[in-house]
Fold each of these.
Amino acid sequence: MDEFDLIRRFLAPLGVAGGDLLLGIGDDCALVQPPPGDVLAISTDSLIEGRHFPVGTDPAAVGWKALAVNLSDLAAMGATPRWFTLALTLERADADWLAAFAHGLGTLARAHGIRLIGGDTTRGPLQLTLTVIGSLPAEGALRRSGAQLGDAVCVSGTLGDAAHALNCLQAGQHPDPFLRERLDRPQPRVALGLALRGRAHAAIDLSDGLVGDLQHVLDASGVGAMIELERLPVSPALARARPPGEGRWACQVAGGDDYELCFCLPEDELAVLAEQVQVPLTRIGTVVAGPGLRCVDASGATIEVPHHGYRHFE
Ligand code: ADP
Ligand code: MG
């Protein structure tokens, strides 16, 4: 199987042309047609084996996660997913691996109506770089810079599940299956992102840990925030695995790979929103005069938490 067989067999089915995709995989460029009046939202994320996912991860989960982390960025901007490209580096063209990979990738792509429009295929250590393209009305974009004093700071879903699963794997233990699934197959909050348009003042997706990611919003907005640690939403599985307190909080505030949305909006918008999207939403704190982020426990005492999330080149 050469490069072109591989593309034809496993990847081209994820990008059948039609509608807003005028010309898909197979020419020098793809041709796409954005909705009239919309702007494009474009983002790239790479995944490297051994760094972003454990060596030997189920290929279907690799395909899923590579797209999920990119869709999460579109969600955080409030964009509708439309097209993506895939730069794929592989040690060898293994048909079983590729079939499973394409299945995981394709399942999530179809669920969000996003089509593969091109890419590049090379030989080397396993690595994937996806560029996703979405569209939205320019004034609808959810930036990091609009948080206002008094806004409720909110998150979707639960926090810390993936970080705990990763800790277990790194310690040579088997994580709870639910937590492993949260690490391998994050659910990008695309519908929530769309619903936040015109409601949230600022938003970000949580990839590197709450404290570090929220700090980006605070910096961009020129404000501070107070986070109440007891309010952080915890899954039943994480609650069983980690008692309340510092160990759990470390996963929840500094652990990465949540791929939930964190957003700032007037408190009274939250109930309407939660009704509209079928995702649990939790208020975890308040935007206050800056700078910086303060974490408090139930008694209001300041708790020192790890300063920031994962950083390359540190
Ligand atoms: P070129 O040599 O013109 O850059 P390539 O031979 O690299 O084109 O690729 C041929 C076609 O296959 C192009 O349309 C390209 O976008 C597509 N393609 C290559 N690799 C991938 C991939 N990993 N995923 C999706 N499409 C791909
Ligand atoms: Mg090329």
Amino acid sequence: MFICCGIETSFDDTCIALLNKNKVLSNIVINYNFQIYKGIVPNIIYLFHIKYIFKIFRISLVNININNIDLISITYGPGLLKSLFIGIILAKFLSLILKIPIYKVNHLHAHILTFFVKGSNIIKNKLIFPFIILLISGGHTLLLIMYDFLKLKILGKTLDNSLGEIYDKIGNLLNFKYPGGYLIDKFSIKGKNIMNIFIPKVKKLNFSFSGIFTKFKNFILNKKYLIKDICITFQKIIFKILLNKVFKALKINNIKNFGIVGGVSNNKYFIQQFKIYSKIYNWNFFYLSKFIKDNAVMIANIGYIKYKKNLNFDLIYIIKPNPKLFINNKVL
Ligand code: KG4
Ligand code: ZN
């Protein structure tokens, strides 16, 4: 047994997970439903983290003795300052009291390496380095190469909004429950394409979604089209943009393996379409069937990976929240 406790409070979920190596022992996620605000309220969320974090820590210990935990793994960024603080305080406290080492974890790095958690995906083949990753979440949109567990290179990023933000803004305009991404995907199933839209020209492997948003905002406000038709038309153009960049990234780097991660990668239409194109181009396409949205399993998993790689533990007194932490090419 080697038990790693992962703690994640970077945004609007309070999450604690226990892993034995890369096998999940417990996974608790509490999400706050901000229906009334149609969005996230940073100055309120941290109060929920305070309210629930100790409760869920106790629940995750139902079948496990606290003294059997070997390692703590904590998200230190990117995210909301106050929210990150709550998780970090619990992590430091546990590390001190239990006299066990601690690793700080980049939330985005954790999303990417979720593929290495046992049972996280249903693809038979193993994901082999190097591979291209498309990270599409509420906070980020990135295209990158993973050379190894701890080595990567950013190829492209969004120049304006993240893809999740755009989905949620469209969702709000359609009066969908927040966050609207899931419902746009669901409604699109029975929709018919309204029109073919040209994909915007964006330099290199970067993305830009603001122009598309304005176009669809007008469609919705016009009230001329059915919601389901708007949804599929939107999904189609977004997919075209993603496919175009992924295609280039794989071709330029002569790589066949590629995966999608982040909340938006839950999108059934994207998965179905990427599967089709993977057959055509002979790509090995990977997507997650579990631990897609924010969770602490992915955080504990990075702790275990760093431990296996013999990385120096982080000094408890030095760890602090880094809200703007971005994956750069050197330090994770
Ligand atoms: O990764 P995530 O859980 O949280 C962040 O770290 O940002 O991503 C949340 C985002 C939201 O914008 C939500 O609308 C979107 O993921 N999302 C989807 C789908 N399911 C969740 N977007 C499109 N299609 C979906 N099926
Ligand atoms: Zn996330």
Amino acid sequence: MGEFDLIERYFKRPARQPARDSLVRLGIGDDCALLQPRPGTQIAISTDMLVEGRHFFPGVDAQALGHKALAVNLSDLAACGASPLAFTLALALPEANEAWLAAFSNGLFALADHHACELAGGDTTRGPLNICITVFGEVPLQNGASTALLRSGARAGDDVYVSGHLGDARLALELLRGHIQAPEAVLLEARARLERPNPRVALGQALRGIATSAIDLSDGLLGDLAHVLKASGVGASLHTAAVLSRLEADPARLANAGADPAPLSPQQLLALVLAGGDDYELAFTAPADARAAVAAAAASAQTPVTRIGSIDAEPGLRLLDASGAAVDNRFASFDHFRQ
Ligand code: ADP
Ligand code: MG
């Protein structure tokens, strides 16, 4: 199968309703795609690359991979409060394996269709498996100003929130690596969260005009929140009990693997949640007088959110236990370049 057959068969689809207000005026097939932003909007763009062996295990389910490759990109749009419109796909493949391509494009388009996000073009080449997607989203302008959620808007006194619950993806990774052991049902659920993250697109849009800053959690809460604090020139205090999520509900299910399995320590549970990575939840800030508005946004997006702390004028990040005492926060956030 040649490159052009492959694109025709697995990636080119009949144009959706040739709607006059669709962003993509010309899709796959020419040298360029043509995008036409609607008046009164800005285009939000983000790119994320997934490399075999670095971001996913060799041999991972192709359908799940198609889902995740787009999901991590949609998560960036969500963090900016943008509505997904279109994406491009650059694909390096070691071989044209039809079963793999069919499963990959199925997973990819199922999520794309769910968010009405259209594949507008891309590139296909032979090489080590590598998937690079660029997404295009829309943010309305208000009186000429952007309504995008940025990292730089957090202010002292704001509340800090996270969506969903954290730590499952890292838990799955440690279970798969054999560092932790748990009942099969725990592995299945954690693995679904690792391989099929659910980008919080509806929540991001619902938070426009309410949240003062937002970021999506790809590298771990502490590391990612630090970007917000730096960009905003503020600090934060977080309550560990609030972030511990349901991992804490029955920690005895989780044990360090080995001849004599010992339950995970409270520090290990915290590390999963605070420095785990790959959660693709949103962390955001909002003024304390916007609590009702945040709750309404979460309800309209059908996405649970938890208030986990507050923004301080004093730089740095402090962790507090239930009694208000300081907790050691030396958890290394996942860093691709740290050995
Ligand atoms: P060129 O050689 O001019 O760069 P290509 O032959 O690479 O063009 O691509 C032909 C058309 O197919 C273009 O419209 C391109 O956007 C599209 N395309 C190529 N690979 C993909 C892919 N993986 N997914 C979607 N569209 C693709
Ligand atoms: Mg090309």
